[in-house]
């Protein structure tokens, strides 16, 4: 792609050497999708007449058009086109092979457009029935109706396209079937439902109703009533901070957590209890959020559930009927009340009270024990995190003789560094979030690990003195994970609203150019780059391997392997474990 070119699938200028984080916010970056031929019609049906070419077609805002989805872009939007045209429209909820009616919402610099799906005319390829009736409206499981094998195939293809188009790597080495292939086969998730150990639901005064569409004089129009006043407990409708989709059951969380949700739903709306949801417009009401976390008893291996009520003030008497009911569930071992008096919509309280049981639950990861409090940072898919961390350990290739120094950048709560500490001489971890650093130190002490040092620091603001406080590292782990910032840097500091759509993956801008420069200067023998954003990952790998001409930086690494890992089935999010070795 030429410098300063506008990509129809990135929504912005792609300049080699110009970091994305200099912008006000990171625009959604999509994989450059290859041209996909139209699906061959079934033998029993005559092929449709081809539509006449529409050269120079340019949609108008508000126009209702018929589209065909050809591919999935990164972040899960469908890459759609009008028959006979090459103009790209990105449509949320559209899946490959689907023929649909959509309405044009935004035009992006004349290069592409965004459209809202109105109606499906023909189903997509690899269609399956979504088990959740709210899947189309919730936003948390965008691809439930797409067969899982197809989901991971599209994710693998997206990583490949990004490495080729943004990373400038040889496409011949991106085929997993080749013996010297850099890109390995994607690692699927064994459990595609009930994999989240934490879910956060919101109480609201405006219940969002499921979408209903009708046809009138050949025009697709939206039903006039999309929302209704009424209390709700569930997930925020995508794009709305004040409207809540009422959820009775969630297929992402554990079954004991679902039991808790059901009991709360049966109880909290009883007028006799006097419980009211918080109104984000009037700033009145009591109940703000319901957070449910699932861990494991280290001794027995049985589930442990923590229930956290986030309220606008401390009135434990009002919560006791709920507490009495949910503690009848055997797995519930902790009930917490976080009090958040601010007008913001965050779940982190200024004060925390234990209403029942113990203040923490426990979880095991790679043989280590972690204590999890109501606001602790922890990987939300424990079983797949175990798989991910094993891949990181294998990629790091520690000798195991206790002679090597490991530098863990963006270390979060130290989970990766602590799993490597057993085979390293010393681990140094850096993280900007003070609460995460506090958890990392606590986790090290809990597991009796004395060769790990965790330092609070902003890696986007390093200076000439960075690196002088520790020995030259043999292995650098750069773990740009979503969970590090999910509940503190975004939610707590900036009143960032977590919805079903973004609770998996807030935008991560990748490495700052100052850090790229330092990595190229320090020349550690190996770097394991772990990223939840394949687009910025591909860009950073390009810088580290090929250099940055505009900054007069020479690349000094060779990309040895990239392993995509599916951490969150039915979502567009992808984790990648990349190994770089010094030339």
Automatic annotation (TrEMBL):
Compositional bias per record (Pro residues), positions renumbered to this chain: 37-53
Residues annotated as domain TRAM: 58-117
Record-level GO BP terms: methylation; RNA processing
Region called Disordered, residue ranges: 37-57
Binding locations of S-adenosyl-L-methionine: 379, 410, 431, 505
PROSITE patterns: SAM_MT_RNA_M5U (PS51687), TRAM (PS50926), TRMA_2 (PS01231)
Classification via Pfam families: Methyltransf_31, tRNA_U5-meth_tr
InterPro entries noted in UniProt: Methyltranfer_dom, MeTrfase_TrmA_CS, NA-bd_OB-fold, SAM-dependent_MTases_sf, TRAM_dom, U5_MeTrfase_fam
UniProt keyword terms in alphabetical order: Methyltransferase, S-adenosyl-L-methionine, Transferase
One GO MF term: RNA methyltransferase activity
Superkingdom classification of source: Eukaryota
Keyword S-adenosyl-L-methionine (UniProt): yes
Active site per the UniProt annotation: 532 (nucleophile)
Family: Belongs to the class I-like SAM-binding methyltransferase superfamily. RNA M5U methyltransferase family.
Name the record gives this protein: Putative RNA methyltransferase CT0009
Native source organism of the sequence: Dichanthelium oligosanthes
Lineage: Eukaryota, Viridiplantae, Streptophyta, Embryophyta, Tracheophyta
